[in-house]
Every structure is written in C-alpha cells, then in structure tokens.
C-alpha cells in the first residue's frame, strides 16, 4: 500500500482555520472527482442499509465485508477533519462539509447555485434524512438552510458565520425533490440578514431568517478590495 500523500505540502499561510494549499486546480478537481465517486457509492450504501430486508446472516456477512473496506481506507488518513482549503486561484474545497462536502456521504450533497437574487439548490432527500414518517427531519432542514443562507450571506466575497437562525416549520416537508432558496434582506455593518425557504411541489414548507456575521478577524477591508 502506497503512503504517498495525495497533495504537496501545505504552505504555512492559514487564515482563521482556512488553509492556504497550493495544490494546482486541475489536481484538486481530479482528486475531488475521485472522492465524490466514492461518497456517491457510500451514500447508496447508507440508503441500502436503511431499507434492506435481507436476512440476518446476509447482514452479518455484508458487515464483515464492509469492515475490510474500512480498514483499506484507514491505511492512509488525515490526522483530523478535512477542513477548508483554498489555492492561489481562490479555488476552495471543503470535502468534509456536512452539507456540500464532495467526500462526505452524509451530505446530500447540496449543489448551491448563485443567481440574481441570492442562491438556490435543488435536492432530493431520501430515507437517510427522515424524521417524522416520510418527512424530512427538522434538524436536517435547519442544517441545509443554514448552509445555503451562509453561502448567500458570504456572496463569494467574504466569510460569514451563523449568529442567529430562526425556523418556521409551516407543514411537514416530504422526502423527495425539494427546492431551497435564499436571499439577502439587508446588511448592517458586519451583520447580514438573510431569508430562505424550502419548498416542495405544493409550495413552501419551511421558512427561515438568520443573522450572519462577518467575524472581525476575517473581515476584508472594502477599501483594500477596491484598491487591489
Ligand atoms: C469552500 C468555502 C466555503 C465557505 C463558506 C461556507 C459557508 C457555510 C455556512 C455555514 C454556516 C455555519 O454553519 S457557521 C457555524 C455556526 N456558527 C458559529 O459557529 C458561530 C459562532 N459564533 C461566533 O463565531 C461569533 O459569536 C460571531 C462570529 C457570530 C460574532 O462574533 P464577533 O465578530 O466577535 O461579533 P461582535 O463583534 O460581538 O458583534 C458584531 C455585531 O453582531 C452582533 N452579534 C454578535 N453575535 C450575534 C449573534 N449570535 N446573533 C446576532 N447578532 C450577533 C452584535 O450585537 C454586533 O452588532 P452591532 O453592535 O454591530 O449592531
């Protein structure tokens, strides 16, 4: 088993936990595609494990096979979580992120699209996201909205963290195809006020509003941005 690290050494520069990593973009894209294909199959595995009706002996044999696969993946591991990295071209990657991480089978994953009014995402949630029977778990709805609202507040030009998030569950959100939308309502200094929703084919099921804050230590001076 080779122990060659997949990436060159990370350079020393790190801002607020965001790690500068000068891996060339084509190499990031290549590795991301490889990990995403693994995560896709693991996601299938999670759904299959929830819904399987095969007999107990077969479940035990599959468990043992999977334990062997876990050992193979453990042969070379990061010392901690995947974190958030970016290179000199501002290609960023957060492969372990709970909502969008390319390598994270727990992430649906959400594919966030920036549009004229903010962001939207179309997603299909299956059995792994169930809370009440046939419905999306309320915490999952909050997690997905939190993420798309944070991306909307960050607007590809700053980093914001969730300060306050308020949810209104108007009716149950059915598992299946859903649309998330988010937009900025207003801004006050480092505070960005964001509104968002989840809808199924019959309309909105969940509404949210939140205050996202650009931490003082991560703030990019607008003067510097315009003079650059
Ligand atoms: C690939 C790349 C992807 C990168 C992009 C990925 C986006 C992903 C988005 C995911 C979102 C998340 O899950 S983020 C993770 C969950 N959130 C967190 O862990 C945040 C934890 N909290 C913090 O770090 C901090 O408390 C902050 C940053 C929220 C605020 O700290 P601060 O910067 O020191 O704020 P401070 O100076 O005290 O206050 C500034 C102003 O904000 C107000 N303020 C302060 N805290 C709050 C608050 N919780 N709720 C409301 N308002 C608040 C103050 O009253 C003040 O208003 P005024 O006096 O000026 O009027």
From TrEMBL:
- Indicate the segments forming the Thioesterase domain, all copies: 134-206
Q: What's an example GO BP annotation here?
A: fatty acid metabolic process
User: Do the record's keywords include Lipid biosynthesis?
Assistant: no
What EC designation does it have?
A: 3.1.2.2
Q: Which reaction does it catalyse?
A: dodecanoyl-CoA + H2O = dodecanoate + CoA + H(+); (5Z,8Z,11Z,14Z)-eicosatetraenoyl-CoA + H2O = (5Z,8Z,11Z,14Z)-eicosatetraenoate + CoA + H(+); octanoyl-CoA + H2O = octanoate + CoA + H(+); hexadecanoyl-CoA + H2O = hexadecanoate + CoA + H(+)
Q: Tell where it localizes.
A: Cell projection, Ruffle membrane; Cytoplasm; Membrane
Instruction: State one molecular function term (GO).
Output: hydrolase activity
- Keywords of this entry: Apoptosis, Cell membrane, Cell projection, Cytoplasm, Fatty acid metabolism, Hydrolase, Lipid metabolism, Membrane, Transit peptide
- Cite a single Pfam family from the UniProt record: 4HBT
Q: Which family does it belong to?
A: Belongs to the THEM4/THEM5 thioesterase family.
* Protein name per the record: Acyl-coenzyme A thioesterase THEM4
The organism of origin for this protein: Actinomadura bangladeshensis
């Amino acid at each position: 088993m080779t122990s060659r690290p997949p990436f060159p050494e990370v350079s020393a520069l790190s801002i607020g936990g965001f790690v500068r990593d000068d891996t060339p973009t084509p190499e990031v894209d290549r590795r991301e595609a490889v990990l995403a294909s693994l995560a896709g199959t693991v996601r299938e595995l999670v759904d299959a494990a929830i819904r399987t009706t095969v007999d107990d002996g077969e479940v035990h044999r599959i468990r043992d096979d999977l334990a062997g696969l876990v050992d193979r993946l453990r042969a070379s591991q990061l010392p901690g979580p995947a974190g958030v990295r970016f290179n000199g071209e501002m290609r960023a990657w957060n492969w372990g992120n709970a909502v969008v991480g390319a390598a994270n089978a727990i992430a649906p994953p959400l594919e966030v699209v920036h549009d004229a009014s903010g962001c939207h995402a179309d997603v299909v949630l299956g059995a792994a996201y169930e809370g009440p029977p046939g419905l999306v778990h309320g915490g999952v709805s909050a997690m997905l909205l939190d993420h798309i609202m944070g991306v909307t507040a960050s607007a590809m030009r700053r980093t914001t963290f969730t300060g306050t998030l308020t949810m209104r569950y108007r009716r149950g959100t059915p598992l299946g195809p859903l649309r998330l939308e988010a937009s900025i309502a207003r801004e006050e200094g480092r505070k960005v006020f964001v509104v968002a929703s989840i809808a199924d084919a019959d309309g909105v099921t969940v509404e949210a509003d939140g205050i996202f804050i650009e931490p003082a230590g991560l703030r990019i001076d607008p003067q510097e941005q315009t003079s650059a």
